[in-house]
Amino acid sequence: MTYTPPAPVALETMLDAVSFDASGLIAAIAQQHDTGEVLMIAWMTREALQETLQTGRVCYYSRSRKKLWRKGETSGQVQHLHEARLDCDADAVLLLVNQIGVACHTGRRSCFYRAFEQDGLVELTKPEIDPNQLYGHMHS
């Protein structure tokens, strides 16, 4: 399936339907489109969602850096949009994506790699790539 961006008039109508929070943000869940694997959760502003829908390349908003964050711009681990869905309350977005490489800054495929078990948190997966290789420097 190839992503087709919406027409400009339709895009504005769709963005107007989104219920951004008081900070102008909406939660965005990224899920691998063909396997259903939940990869990560991040935040989007109207501008980030608009860019994502227009280009088909996922763009988030970094709350720590206070700027747009184009997934993969420093790591090369890009997310290509297949479909975007808005939840019933219009306050969360599900992004069905094709994740190139790993989604997590720790070098894992998914950010959800720890499980709450009887004796504490259990690490389910090991990094697939060293985070230093992802970013070309030491990363915390």
From TrEMBL:
Zn(2+) binds at C88, C104, C111. GO terms for molecular function: magnesium ion binding; phosphoribosyl-AMP cyclohydrolase activity; phosphoribosyl-ATP diphosphatase activity; zinc ion binding. Binds 1 zinc ion per subunit. Binds 1 Mg(2+) ion per subunit. It holds the Pfam family PRA-CH. It catalyses: 1-(5-phospho-beta-D-ribosyl)-5'-AMP + H2O = 1-(5-phospho-beta-D-ribosyl)-5-[(5-phospho-beta-D-ribosylamino)methylideneamino]imidazole-4-carboxamide; 1-(5-phospho-beta-D-ribosyl)-ATP + H2O = 1-(5-phospho-beta-D-ribosyl)-5'-AMP + diphosphate + H(+). Its EC number is 3.5.4.19. Keywords: Amino-acid biosynthesis, Cytoplasm, Histidine biosynthesis, Hydrolase, Magnesium, Metal-binding, Zinc. Residues 40-113 form the Phosphoribosyl-AMP cyclohydrolase domain. Mg(2+) binds at D87, D89, D91. One of its GO terms (cellular component) is cytoplasm. Its cofactor is Zn(2+); Mg(2+). One of its GO terms (biological process) is L-histidine biosynthetic process. Catalyzes the hydrolysis of the adenine ring of phosphoribosyl-AMP. HAMAP family: HisI (MF_01021). This is Phosphoribosyl-AMP cyclohydrolase.
